[in-house]
Amino acid sequence: MRMLAAIGVFCGMILLPTHLVAIESPVNHIAMKGFAPYYTPEFATVLAGYPIQWDNRTATAHTVTHDGCLTGESCAFDSGAISPENSFNLLSLQPGTYPYYCRLHPIMRGVITVIEPTVN
Ligand SMILES: [Cu+2]
User: Fold this and answer.
1) Which of 45, 51, 59, 62 is deepest in the core (most CB within 10 A)?
2) Superfamily of structural domain 25-115
């Protein structure tokens, strides 16, 4: 019974119009911290079409910068400086794996993996 309910909720989310999904889906929060792992969780898997939010919980500014912006390949996202107590929101990403870092502190690294929702 519990599984049936979970499937129903899952299917309902997929069938909702995009703007409703964005409101009703849980926001994926990633915290920026002053110690390792600097992005918590360091490895985050999210569903395509869902927003991702980084919260700066440190006393200094940071960025959330896709590695592709550094290498000259496709630059999927680059937040610019995020001040303390501020956030950065990505509304959606195409499925794929996105390693990223902080331009101001390159030791800060994380990986976002975006997967398609699947129904079996
Ligand atoms: Cu930083």
Assistant:
1) 62
2) Cupredoxins -  blue copper proteins (2.60.40.420)
